[in-house]
Amino acid sequence: MSSAVTSLRRQGRAVALLGFGGIALLAISQPIWLVGSLVIWAYCLYLLFYSLEENIRDGESALIASLGWPTLVTLVRGVLLAVVAGFLIIPVPLGVRAYFPAGAYTLAVLLDAVDGRLARAMGRATRLGERLDMEVDAAGILIASLLAIQYGKLPAWYVVIGLARYLFVLGLVWRRRRGRVVLEFEPNALRRILAGVQMGFLAVSLWPPLPSEASLCAAPFFAGASLAMFARDWWWVSGRLHRAA
Length: 245
Prior knowledge:
The protein is mainly α. It has one domain (about 5-245): Four Helix Bundle (Hemerythrin (Met), subunit A) (Up-down Bundle). Helix content is about 70%, strand content about 0%. The chain is built from 9 helices and no strands. The chain has helices spanning about 5-25, 35-50, 70-85, 100-120, 125-150, 160-175, 190-205, 210-235, 240-245. Helix 2 (about 35-50) runs antiparallel to helix 3 (about 70-85) and helix 3 (about 70-85) runs antiparallel to helix 4. It starts with a helix and ends with a helix. The mean pLDDT is about 90.
């Protein structure tokens, strides 16, 4: 094992303990909240440790021995999502606590605009950071969708949006195992924009002051835009878009 990997694992363990500590402090008054939170934080840590050897800049081969601030910001987002997930298994909070899940998810969404820009500004854009960012985004959309449905802010069918990326990935695995065409994604700025818009909509929907009627009415429009992008990407990676052209 290289010294760089050893250093990264040591840093990863420190991050894990800090995250566990922060989550445990928040759960003092309601321990059952820990169940959902720790599952998500454990998932984030799995992604981190599984991908440590991808802590490499694009176009380079040398492993970077430190996680770096951009990746740490992404992991903070993971902690915030763990906080939001804890509310999935407890009754709808009242009073000031009713704002906690919306506040935590909104902060996670805002930080999504920070980690990527920070990585580019510091020259620390890595495969590890890119993978974590993408997976945290996807997990956040699923968690926020489920919570908004639970709170009556979105229709039950909106869970399809939360599951869309995971179903898409399973579809790609299915095609590869059967030896079917699977092309690389084409660069498309709209994909990232729509993901940001979707996260923003979910964040707004979770805030208690927003009437349920408003988010329920808007749901088909935001869902339609995301699903159209997924459909277009599926046609691309399966080669159908090329044949049609």
